[in-house]
Here is the input.
Amino acid sequence: MLRFYNTLTGRVGEFQPLEPGKVRLYTCGPTVYDYAHIGNFRTFVFQDILRRWLRARGFEVFQVMNITDVDDRTIENALAAGVSLGEYTEKYTQSFLQDMELLSLEQPEKMVRATEHIRDMVELIERLEAKGYAYRSDGSVYFSIRKFASYGRLSKIDLAGIQAGARVDVQEYDKSDPRDFALWKAAKPGEPFWETPFGKGRPGWHIECSAMAMKYLGESFDIHTGGVDLMFPHHENEIAQSEAATGKPFVRTWLHAEHLLVEGERMAKSKGNYYTLRDLLAKGYKPSAIRYLLASVPRRKQLNFTLDGLHQAAQSVERLRNFRLRLRTEKFPAGDSAALAQRIEQAGAAFDAALDDDLNTAEALAAVFDLVRDLNTAMDRGEFPQGNSAATDALLARYDRIFAVLTDVVIPEPVVGKLSVGQPTVIVSLSDEEVEKLLAERRAARARRDFARADEIRQELAGRGIIVEDTKDGVRWKRL
Ligand code: AMP
Ligand code: ZN
Here is the structure.
């Protein structure tokens, strides 16, 4: 039974989607004003483990992730750089996508840019106006928190104590209540704007997510995720806007990831205590070690980042890879051990139970490492028979469908070119013929409905920098 701790209820409960077998999931994506740091990626890795586990549990997942390509910070930085907002954010959008590949983050079913959904946002604001939840002031539109009785339910915040929260524009003196937040912001001189019924301006950050989430997932959907810093005010405001407009519950389950810390403080751009993925690759660390470290601590626990911790994560990954290599290459005595078969099965059950328990990744890893230790010992003593190797290999594959660290992703040339220190491993890519051969094998796997193998081939290709796309006209591939 899959259980999650739901921020909204404050309890652990069994997870059941609204529509049997299908999970609709919204993930707050990056604000593309700069390179994402690995604190951001802690949250994105958690979300990736979530979608992988939901799928492993037989759910079909439809995940939407937004790209915040218009907000205060993107506008400010684009102005400072003297380029258009679009040109500015495109660079960081592309680098985010590249980082996703490097960290083996699966592509959500839909990735959407805020600037391509302005119409949807305007319509939602108009609905809020029509229902009396929004008011205009000096070319901006605000949400009246007073009118939404259950405001604060998610973050359990005391409404009386709210001052201007994080990311709230303190220049907004024209609100009738200081706690109200902007749905639409009047353009300041020199800023990019859209022409709308409210005048020239741009959306507030919160309305972006409400509009895009409801457009693709419906007015009520299953899971919404983000880092804990987004709980208030961002997610609280998303709930207020969406539920005020529709009169329906917006999201059933809210899952938040705790922060990645550096010396006890949240890793953040503003604190200057951050590493980007590129920074760490330049120091010679592999993406798999970074992914492993970020995934190794359950999402509700803070994770203190150190290079030493990263080094240990790299060693853990190596231990698993060495074990798999040993399993696949060593000659074991013939036969089959019932006791070992049971031990392997028990490890698999413990792995599943851990992830079912609110994605307890630490316990899941412990189950795998305990098994690896026992089997290594058995191998050393010559007591590991060949007959148990297929089940062991299958368990490692099951592990890696979630943790995805056993194969390193190629570090593409454009990134390598920017690296200044160290010599990251660059895997030689495949020839066209080799790619075609693997694709033929994938076709054959799909034809016999062996989707696990087909997926494995796609991942293997991705690991060599080959991106496979299934289009309605057939399979297409390109090099990263
Ligand atoms: P942003 O690009 O600032 O919108 O943030 C993208 C995601 O990273 C959000 O879900 C944030 O909550 C999350 N985030 C920001 N800083 C950290 C951190 N230090 N640790 C974990 N997640 C973070
Ligand atoms: Zn959001």
In short: The pocket of adenosine monophosphate (ligand 1) is lined by residues 28, 30-31, 39-40, 42-43, 68, 226-227, 229-230, 257, 259-260, 266-268 (CB under 6 Å). The first strand starts at residue 3 and ends at 6. The two ends are 39 Å apart (CA to CA). Residues 164-170, 416-428 have pLDDT under 50 and may be disordered.
